[in-house]
Amino acid sequence: MADIILHDYFRSTAAWRVRIVLALKGVDYIHAKVNLLEGAHRTPAYRALNPQGVVPTLEIDGLVLTQSLAIIDYLDARFPEPPMVPKDPAARARVLAKALVIAADIHPINNLRVLRYIQGELGADEAARDGWIAQWIGEGFTALETMAKADGARFLSGDTPGIADACLIPQLFNARRFHVPVEAYPTLLAIETEAMAVPAFAGTHPDRV
Ligand SMILES: N[C@@H](CCC(=O)N[C@@H](CS)C(=O)NCC(=O)O)C(=O)O
């Protein structure tokens, strides 16, 4: 098999999702670092790989894949064990809903280019920016806490870690990075403790890459 290359930035929560899934599946890869703070993701060379100019991008099987959840879906089809999404249709829908609370509703309005826009174009100061972040993480985590508590499972994806956990653990890291209080989400924190005991989560933490 040709080399698998993950284009990644250590603190990118979307890229960390993919690192977690590659590690859970035991897939080896080469790490290509893309420094977001230096604008490496906006160069023509990187945009030729990823027209959106964001990380992650995964080169695999002669393909160039973008969008973390699409990449995870590909990896799940290509390396089926362990599965990232349950087979049962109802359980599958619930797990994907939890993943999407983060990937579709929390993350997109809190990433670097949005934060730069509200500060640069709209004139928000640092306190206003942090208030924005806390508002949307808080709203999403409140819903997720209710969903996770109702499911009562060990992980957000069920009895074993999967796609929703690969979204949750990086988002909790990001919340703390921006001083968003997380004590109000005991079920999510218990899931985080379980996940961080799994090497695929701890070993791919931004401090370790
Ligand atoms: N929905 C995309 C989001 C990708 C994304 O926004 N990545 C962030 C890092 S977490 C990024 O590259 N941001 C660069 C920027 O906003 O300028 C995915 O899941 O892959």
As residue ranges, the low-confidence spans are none
Mean pLDDT: 97
**Could you describe the largest sheet, including whether it forms a barrel?**
4 strands, mixed
Radius of gyration, rounded?
Answer: 17 Å
Number of strands: 4
Ends distance: 24 Å
Categorize the overall geometry.
globular
Give a list of the ligands.
Answer: glutathione
Number of helices: 9
Q: Please identify the structural class as seen in this structure.
A: alpha+beta
- In what range is the share of β-strand residues? 5-15%
SSE ordering: EHEHEEHHHHHHH
List the helices and strands and how they pair.
Elements: E1 5-8, H1 13-24, E2 30-33, H2 44-49, E3 57-60, E4 63-66, H3 68-78, H4 89-106, H5 112-120, H6 126-151, H7 163-177, H8 186-196, H9 199-202
Parallel strand pairs: 1-2
Antiparallel strand pairs: 1-3, 3-4
The site of glutathione has 15 residues, from α1, α3 and α5.
How would you portray this structure in words?
- The protein is α+β, with helices and mostly antiparallel strands and 209 residues long.
- 54% of the residues lie in helices and 8% in strands.
- The protein has nine helices and four strands, in the order βαβαββααααααα.
- The chain has helices at residues 13-24, 44-49, 68-78, 89-106, 112-120, 126-151, 163-177, 186-196, 199-202; strands spanning 5-8, 30-33, 57-60, 63-66.
- Helix 1 runs parallel beside helix 3 (68-78), helix 1 packs antiparallel against helix 7 and helix 4 runs parallel beside helix 7.
- The radius of gyration is 17 Å and the shape is globular.
- It starts with a strand and ends in a 7-residue tail after the last helix.
- Glutathione (GSH) is lined by residues 12-14, 36, 41, 54-56, 67-69, 103, 111-113.
